[in-house]
Amino acid sequence: TTTATPDILLPSDYVFTAFMKLGDDGGQVEPLQKALQQLGFFPVDQAITGHFGPVTETAVKSFQAAHGIEQAGYVGPATREVLNSY
Hints:
Layout: H1 29-38, H2 54-66, H3 77-83
Domain Peptidoglycan binding-like: 26-83
InterPro entries: Peptidoglycan-bd-like, PGBD-like_sf, PGBDSf
């Protein structure tokens, strides 16, 4: 069995600085989606759109749960800190 891998990887020194939540567009949402996809939380069959919709919110909550962060569904300081540690 082969596993799909994301086509576009973020630079290892990429730093998330923005607060992101459901309904946001642009900014760091697209890099967030790419990072979550690389880490296995955002579905590989889902398009990277730069829109923080329900799929991104679910991926963020899964990431938060896996890292012991409150599953708020938005990207705040605690979530950014863990994202930036990769």
